[in-house]
Specification:
With about 90 residues, the chain is mainly β. Helix content is about 0%, strand content about 65%. Strands 1, 2, 3, 4, 5, 6, 7, 8, 9 and 10 form a ten-stranded mixed beta sheet that branches. The protein is globular and about 30 Å long. The termini are far apart.
């Protein structure tokens, strides 16, 4: 049976919201290495490392943000990325 589950993703910097929306997948760099998040991922709390956060939208479009410091939280198809510093890069088609 095909899945229709999506992730609700929120990317915020210390002083502003960077991006919020629905996604099919999120890939981020943590202190332990790169991690990919799909719908129904187990709950997780990780320390962000400096690098890209890649968000694949359900349309196939990819959004990239540069993040530095902070943490990543996953629970109930919700991904929250709270970075010390973050900025959105231009969207890239996949």
């Amino acid at each position: 049976m095909a899945s229709t589950a999506e992730l609700q993703v929120d990317v915020v910097a210390a002083d502003h919201s960077v991006w919020s929306g629905q996604a099919a997948r999120v890939v981020a760099r943590t202190a332990e290495g790169e991690i990919g998040i799909l719908p129904r991922h187990e709950p997780l709390l990780g320390v962000l490392a400096e690098g890209e956060v890649r968000i694949l939208l359900t349309s196939g479009e990819q959004i990239t943000a540069q993040a530095e410091g902070g943490f990543l939280s996953v629970e109930n198809n919700r991904v929250t990325i709270v970075a010390d510093r973050a900025e959105l890069s231009a969207p890239v088609n996949s």
